[in-house]
Specification:
With about 400 residues, the chain is an alpha+beta fold. About 35% of the residues lie in helices and about 25% in strands. Helix 1 packs across helix 10. The mean pLDDT is about 95.
């Protein structure tokens, strides 16, 4: 009997994790990881802040909460086994007023419910003990929140899949998906066709488009938002010891500017969140008419924009004004000046928007025939990738007798 053939489309950290997991649970599978770029981790995985989240914010019982908590433990163990950089530098959420102080208490309750270890509330003096240059009326400390080399994790996952008999094919962009009898036919942009018994889509910024190719519904739609960062000059990195974050405001769709050390020694300030003019629009001059029209004509985007236009204007102003951008960070680190930062990297977030204009908050997977699609995998998807892989593989293979708790 021939081996069952599965394709995983998308060579980010999630696709690599799923390919490895498939071969862990069924070593006789023929698994191929397909990536349209010349290398792995070229988009969201390689353009994020590199934070391994502990699970502070997420609704208890949600997929995000469960898979983040399980996933971060798995991620740390994997990094230790494969010598990938992982540093528990800790994270402080800083409250600037009494309203934010009250929100900290609610986050603390969620963190405890989610089983986040060693988290505690801080007064103003304790915040300064941990971060001497930070000023706030209160804080919340998560000492187990970490920074990690996610592209390095992706490469190690792909190597593990190859060692288990899997294949990785780069430069393969899916142009068409069809079914022929009991098989799924993938056609590349070069005209080449390949057949598989089953396909798992982890296409990130293009998740809606490839799902539509497979006959799936158009809701939700991916709307790309670019996040821009500055970097602290090397001589000013001592302003920051660990991760410094604002207290989330539930009225607004994005978190806001924060300060983030990286495993390479850099310290990032940002990001903002502005509508990208292309799904891979890392610069203002990168424009795709197709991507932009698909985003702005989506009914959900128009509803979202009407509700949050003031936030959008503020984010745009931060994009064009370095002084305004830095001012947002100075609320937490008053010693920071415009001269302390230089332009840094950018990323594009694949934000799933429902037809009703609501952000899709939790992880979401859908199925159309023999194609299973990951439709929404926002932060903390990279942190949760190994646990998401367990979950997706169980769905794909209809596995019921799992021995994990997600």
């Amino acid at each position: 009997m021939s081996r069952k053939r599965l394709a995983v489309v998308g060579g980010g950290i999630l696709g690599a994790a799923i390919a490895r997991r498939l071969l862990q649970v069924e070593p006789d599978l023929e698994v191929t990881l397909l990536e349209k770029e010349s290398g792995l981790a070229q988009h969201q995985t390689g353009h994020n802040s590199g934070v391994a989240h502990a699970g502070l914010y997420y609704t208890p019982g949600s997929l995000k909460a469960r898979l983040c908590r399980r996933g971060v433990a798995m991620l740390q163990e994997f990094c230790e086994q494969h010598q990938v950089a992982y540093d528990e530098c800790g994270k402080v959420l800083v409250a600037l007023d009494d309203v934010e102080r009250e929100r900290l208490s609610a986050i603390m309750e969620r963190a405890v419910a989610n089983g986040v270890p060693d988290v505690r509330l801080l007064d103003a003096g304790e915040v300064r003990d941990i971060e001497p240059h930070v000023r706030g009326v209160a804080g919340l400390h998560s000492p187990r929140t970490a920074i990690v080399d996610f592209p390095g994790v992706t490469r190690a996952l792909a190597d593990a899949a190859i060692a288990a008999g899997g294949k990785v094919r780069t430069g393969y962009e899916v142009a068409r998906i069809g079914e022929s009898g009991s098989e799924v036919v993938l056609a590349g942009t070069d005209g080449q066709e390949d057949t598989f018994d089953q396909v798992i889509m982890c296409a990130g910024l293009h998740a809606d488009r490839v799902a539509a190719m497979a006959g799936d519904e158009d809701d939700p739609r991916i709307v790309p938002f670019r996040g821009e960062y500055y970097l602290l000059r090397p001589e000013r990195r001592d302003l920051v010891r660990g991760l410094i974050y604002p207290v989330p405001d539930p009225r607004y769709p994005f978190l806001g500017v924060h300060l983030t050390p990286r495993v390479d020694g850099e310290v990032m300030v940002g990001p903002n969140a502005v509508l990208a003019l292309a799904k891979e629009g890392y610069r203002w001059r990168t424009v795709s008419r197709r991507d932009l029209v698909e985003a702005v004509t989506w009914p959900g985007f128009r509803r979202f924009a009407r509700q949050h236009w003031r936030t959008g204007v503020a984010e745009m102003l931060g994009s064009v004004s370095k002084r305004r951008f830095v001012a947002a960070a100075r609320r937490y680190v008053p010693d920071l000046t415009v001269d302390d930062v230089v332009p840094g990297p950018t990323g594009v977030r694949a934000q799933a928007l429902g037809r009703d204009g609501a952000l899709v908050d939790d992880f979401r997977m859908t199925r159309s025939g023999r194609v299973l699609s990951v439709r929404n995998a926002p932060s903390p998807a990279a942190t949760s990738s190994l646990a998401i892989a367990e979950h997706v593989v169980d769905l794909a293979l209809d596995r019921k007798d799992t021995n994990h708790d997600a």
